[in-house]
Specification:
118 residues, alpha+beta, 30% strand
């Protein structure tokens, strides 16, 4: 996970090849979905956030897997300069998400008006 100077985060993760996951997704043109360990979000504390614990499993997180990972979906990262600085193996891809989308995942929304995802 990388913080950008565009008030966004780039999330690098594994490309999705598992049919059971692919069948659950509706990925619009120009977007991709990547699978990442939930522990990846702990790196947000390096960007000055008080916590990297996901408290709200909602979009851009599309699926929580039984293996403790999550599928995150968003616009495919296309900045050639940024991509040239990353080590991106063939089995990985990356998306760029607005900072607000990431911060939303860290908010506890389990109050009386919100249901927590299973």
């Amino acid at each position: 996970m990388y913080a950008t100077d565009q008030d966004s985060f780039v999330v690098q993760g594994w490309k999705i090849f598992a049919n059971d996951l692919l069948m659950q997704l509706d990925v619009p043109d120009g977007h991709v979905a990547v699978e990442v360990p939930t522990e990846l979000f702990e790196h947000l504390t390096k960007d000055g956030l008080p916590s990297g614990t996901i408290k709200n499993f909602s979009a851009p997180i599309m699926i929580r897997t039984k293996q403790g990972t999550c599928v995150v979906q968003g616009p495919k990262m296309r900045d050639p300069e940024a991509l040239s600085q990353m080590r991106l193996p063939d089995y990985e891809d990356c998306i760029e998400l607005p900072r607000t989308a990431i911060l939303n995942l860290l908010e506890d929304k389990s109050g009386p008006d919100h249901q927590r995802s299973a």
